[in-house]
Design a protein that fits this description.
Four copies of one chain form a homotetramer. Chain A is α+β, with helices and mostly antiparallel strands. The first copy, chain A, has one domain: Chorismate synthase AroC (Chorismate synthase, AroC fold, 4-Layer Sandwich). Chain A is 29% helix and 23% strand. The first copy, chain A, is built from nine helices and 19 strands. In chain A, strands 1-2-3-7-4 form a five-stranded antiparallel beta sheet. At the A-B interface, strand 1, helix 3, helix 7, strand 12 and helix 8 of A face strand 1, helix 3, helix 7, strand 12 and helix 8 of B. Strand 12 of chain C pairs antiparallel with strand 12 of chain D, so a sheet runs across the interface.
């Protein structure tokens, strides 16, 4: 009973602005940067899957702040609790609700942000869209919203692994002009997790780490590219026309905060090739139809062809910086402004599990859609 | 009566594989490359809009084959007929159905393609997805499917112009390594339409035309980049979290045939900048809040900020080429194969109205969504 | 080529106002009472199903006008053509487009209806909703719109029969105060089709036929109730909370023209019973869990329980009557008005296949939804 | 910090099985009968609406258990907390999250229910659908799930009142064979709230109360009918074809627990009338087009016509009774079973706000849809 009273108090700014993604594996995230908790509700998950808090925690730890010296120093344990949808360790087929407490939502003086539009943040656009805004923190535009995505992605990954043996491996391909060399056929999660830059090319990784430290010292920030490979995706996932697999992957990845570009297969560099160079010729690999090259990135006509799905996502430099900038207030007054407090000098290392999760959610959604229609009649 | 009988005969392979795009301005395209007609149904269009066949025809002519010496020589008049949803020249609020007859679907010998998987086409993936396929032409995977999108986009553009004075101008930014210089603040449709390459930089345009002719002679094909600017977009369009404006634009554009990459604002090149260089500082422009730079591409936090929306789409080289290639049949037999017949050596000039149309459809959809929620209470 | 020109002419008012129903088996109907054709597009149908025109024609003949002396005398052959989505007699997995020509859309003088709001029709509400209306016939509000539903329902029935051996049998339970006695365990389509009233209780059927003839002579119309049983529905179809099976069945049936009421199981009469009378006790029927009674109508907690699904739909008397009525014009002028021309004195016999079709569409949709989620992991 | 720890403990079985209803005003309910809390997330609410806890509490108090001597004696204060989506008393346009603590989820011995299928409950169907079930209480099938609906309905009512002055008044029309006489033009919420039966016909109300007490004493339960009137609904709400207003109202109401029947306007009794009696003639009421009668129940062609919307919902007798019944276990063993504990002998008085809420949610959803499309162009 007294617990209830405490609940009412501690929940007072919880559960902000959910939206929904997916057609059959539907996720709705809720919660904001400076509320008490964030989380996700997953509707449509198949029943009977073994899911534990540990499955989810592994991925959340890859995303969490304060995980290393090159991320924001906000201290969050980001402990996941599965609050519904499982029973005795298995999914029930009913919605799974996962919650994570915000421990370190410092009650610093947000009054200074009340009337201010921070450059390249969502303060201005939220205000003009709704005519009203909760100015106490970045709210739903914060990367903290992605906790729910990563938790939902952890479950999606587990089902994809169990059903198809799919591996989804993302990594930092580049930070500013530092670009890694990575073999998409062999790179593993362990390779990625061997350093705090989350870049499997150890030489470049070290340079990235140095660069991030240097830029942070200058009160500035960096951007970069996440690359991702999915291996063992069965052929046949994706729909013709509007719900092409690359279109849904693109939307999923571009909905992440700070993402400004997306490529699949040869992407923009493929525009420099001739058709005769770009076409992926088919051959017979001991009974399996394969392609000799993979400029298609594993998707043809919007449908997976069984080759590795390979994609890239561009993340702009973090908007929050310490350096002084010019901006305006909500009454149009021009002022100078300098960021304070904790922030990521470079979101790339933490973006890796975010991209992986969105990709996993798209793949499980299309796998369920494919199953509904094409595995119905024997 | 006799007309009916003829109808039944001439429609025999018509209306293939529609799918739907949009939440409130919903389009469903139907029809295929070698059927008798293609078209679109638009549900949710506001009533009372003046729409004529000419509005639609202007855009379809920009998309149609045989329009110039550098496109496929397939001859199609692509005449649009508005078959429902308008009355005395105005929209009724009920679904608009637009149909275009296929005149030049040559009954060439498709039997040679029956068992063949053309490299970098959708033959193999359709077969493995559904276990059955209509092999008589490219079907829904053909760019001819986009007629419906362009027709629906023409109406969307007209409403956006009438309501907000929005200009949407796309153009060929690059073909292979030939890259145009274009001022996004001033470029007009007339600038774009001044040459058959649909590139407003006339010097580069001429080089592009020469390059396309040369590559066609060699039986090969080219790719490139379409860039697009939307001017006068009101601030406030787009939704936080999953339906960010750039995410929906990305999905829309990536669902076009042959599109392999998408960028908004600074895109991939923005990853080379520092945060202090990339951030768009706000200023007060005689009472309007504006940004000094536009690395955000007109979208912040997923919502339009009133600046120009600027995006890029990468199109791979056309899959159909004359040169001999290796491939396999549906029984796994390895064979040599050379394309015959008419095809585009470079899709870029015809891709311009396709990209514009998908962007217009996303903008009108988000404008209606915004209107539903945020213009409801006075 | 000349065929194309004729097509453009004869299609001129075709394809009106489609809307969509269903989540995975999605149908979009188009066409109107006095256009040239009506039809449906079905998206999401499983591939590899044997479908013929005859499968669809059998159901359309049960729906068509002029089928007997107690229906409207409008003469329509209602011949179905499958125009896409099948290949060599099997479904492709891509959208199925079915079209039916309107042969007998008499060009009578609709000018008299131009400014008139017919009582209990949709003239007034369409006008006030959209501010504009095509007054040339009942348009989308006509029961002719249901051709597409019946065609889509015919395919749904075929799949349900092949996969689960489900029988869906509807019949006229009552017309005015004439109520039939029917055994839901044994009634067959043949029992229903044995007379033109589509009522399996032959004594009551004859009285119904006499009553309809008498009322028609008086220039008036009748309403009644369709009852329907589904046998062999597997347990497990339906979703908790909002998409309960009875809720989706109710929406489907209530969306039919003239339907004003819906019941499942005991319905309104169940409100007269005590809980101890109404509860359906479970028992073990040689290893199958069954209920002794079936007041639940085969659905518990929104999910099918394996017993027969039994429901009722109330249809009001036809709005179009010959008798003089008072009404107003669109300028508010009060006038007297008498219907002319052909109409159904009682829609009930023709409503039977409409109700069956909507039920079949809901069941196949829920079967696919169930398959997607609950038959994914072995 | 310590608050967080308590949160983790007290939330342990919270947030079960949400689903979603509505297209633009979307509600997702969560929580279950014997968890720690229940609630709702509302997405798409217009911004700037004044909303207080009191607005919601008024409606929740009408729904809550233990409110009178004829409801279940489960003691719940059902205190609503708005946890997100409002700021300084106004809606933000972002999702509104409302939570209600379960205080009286008695930890009685549910082990006795573990293997048991209660007659006319969802135990069996949940088990067979998912192959796994949380047997600790009725879960999502409990009427406690409707708290979220009533909270979301309270906000919908407030917006409808502010924007259109719409009144939505529901009441108990009948319990078993006791039927009230009510004037739909004048009945008010105060009339309804004057007695614990929530029946505005005081003579019948007293008989209802006596009947409920008597039946409870016998360990049995009762059903009945809720009637509802909406006054001042603007003409034009609802969509042609599948999303007819009566179809969406029907689905909304039939998705409530224990609802087995739905009628609009004349409903089933309209099937006994002649067309000439049933048709609602139009007349000119000082410039407003009105109908003399209202057998249509305020809806014609699926669209509101400005007359009162009148509908009825049939609720079966409560499934939980004290009397002994036969049933089976999940292994098929036949046993005798008698209900224990607190339950409603008749759900009707508490069903009134549930029906009102679902109706309000459908109306606001259709009002937003109408606004999106038909109030876009001036």
């Amino acid at each position: 009973m007294s617990g209830s009273i405490i609940y009412l108090i501690i929940n007072n700014r919880r559960f902000k602005l959910p939206n929904t993604f997916g057609k059959l594996y539907k996720i709705t995230t809720w919660g904001e940067s400076h509320g008490d908790a964030v989380g996700v509700t997953i509707d449509g998950c198949p029943p009977g899957i073994n899911i534990t808090n540990e499955d989810i925690q592994f991925e959340l730890n890859r995303r969490k702040p304060g995980q290393s010296e090159i991320t924001t120093q906000r201290k969050e344990s980001d402990l996941a609790e599965i609050l519904s949808g499982t029973f005795e360790g298995k999914t029930l087929g009913s919605p799974i609700h996962i919650s994570v407490i915000n421990n370190d939502a410092k009650s610093k003086d947000y009054d200074s942000l009340k009337d201010l539009y921070r450059p390249s943040h969502a303060d201005y656009t939220y205000d003009i869209k709704y005519g009203i805004r909760n100015w106490k923190g970045g709210g739903r535009a914060s990367a903290r919203e992605t906790i729910g995505r990563v938790a939902a992605g952890a479950i999606a990954k587990k089902i994809l692994k169990q059903k198809f043996d799919i591996d989804i491996v993302g990594y930092v391909k580049s930070i500013q002009n530092l670009t890694a060399t990575v073999d998409t056929d062999t790179v593993t999660i362990s390779d990625v997790e061997q350093n705090i830059a989350r870049c499997p090319d150890i030489n470049i990784a070290n340079k990235m780490i140095d660069k991030i430290k240097e830029v942070r010292k200058n009160g500035d920030s960096l951007g970069g590219v996440v690359e991702l490979v999915c291996r063992n995706v069965p052929p046949g996932l994706g729909e013709p026309v509007f719900d092409k697999l690359e279109a849904d992957l693109g939307k999923a990845v571009l909905s992440l905060p700070a993402c400004k570009g997306f490529e699949v297969g040869s992407g923009f560099s493929g525009t420099l090739m001739l058709g005769s160079e770009h076409n992926d010729e088919f051959y017979n690999d001991s009974g399996t139809i394969r392609t000799k090259t993979n400029n298609s990135g594993g998707i043809q006509g919007g449908i997976s062809n069984g080759e590795n799905i390979i994609l890239k996502a561009a993340f702009k430099p973090t908007g929050t910086i310490i350096k002084q900038q010019n901006t305006v207030t909500n009454t149009g007054q021009e002022i100078e402004f300098g960021g304070r407090g904790r922030h990521d000098p470079c979101v790339l290392p933490r973006a890796v599990p975010m991209v992986e999760s969105m990709v996993a959610i798209v793949l499980i959604d299309h796998a369920l859609r494919h199953n509904a229609q094409n595995n119905f009649i024997d």
